[in-house]
Design a protein that fits this description.
Elements lengths: L1 E2 L5 H14 L16 H15 L9 E7 L5 E7 L2 E3 L4 E7 L3 H8 L2 E8 L4 E11 L2 H9 L3 H4 L32 E15 L6 E8 L2 E7 L2
Helix pairs in contact: 1-2
Length: 223
Amino acid sequence: MRAMRGYTAQTHKQGADYSMANEGDPRPHHNRLHCYDDLEGSLQHAWSILTRGAVDAKSNFHIATLATVTQDGRPRARSVVLRACNSAERWLGFNTDRRSDKFTECSESPHAVMHFYAPKAKIQLRVRVRLEVLDGPALDTNWANTRPFSRVCYQVTQAPGSPIDAPLDVAFDAEASNDGADHFASVRAHVTEIEWLYLHARGHRRALYRFGPDGDEATWLVP
C-alpha cells in the first residue's frame, strides 16, 4: 500500500456534485465513473455518496448492513439506517434500541463492518468501523433530532426480538419510556478502512483505503 494524502473537506466537495446526480442512475456500459482509474478520486466519491446517504432516504446508501459478533463469537448481520456521516472526522452514525442484541454487541465487541451496495450504480462499499455508544450531550442531541413518528418505535414496552403470540401483541407506553428516550441509543462508527468496488463491463475497479494514527494508505486490489 502507498501513503495517501489526507482527506479534506475540499476534496469531498470536488466529487459531491457528481455523486448527487449519478449515485443511483443507470448508465451505458461506455459511460464510466469520472474516478474509474483514480485511486484518490474513488475515495472522494465514496465519501460523497455516504454523505448523501445520511440525508437522502431514496439513496441506496441510506441503508447499511451492519455485521457484528455475538457474545459467543458468531456473526450477526442486520440493516440499519445511516443517520449521519462526517467525512472530515471519518465516522458514520446510526440509532438503535438499547434493549436490543445489536446494542449489546456494539457495546461489548466494537469492531464491526458496514456494507453498502447500489445495484444501478454498481458500487459496493465495505467499511470497517470501531463502534462507540454515545452518551451525554451527543446522545441528547441525536434524540432531539429524531422525528415524532420515529420516537414511537422506542415506546414499545417489550424489547426488540421478544416473542409474541400475534403481530399486534405489541404494547406502547410513552409515559413509562419517557417518550421513548429511555430506550433510545445512538452509535458512532469510526471508520478505519474502506474497501471500494465498482463493477463495469470494461473492467471492474477495487481499492482499499486504511486510516490510522500513523497515516493513511491506499492501494488498488484485484477485483
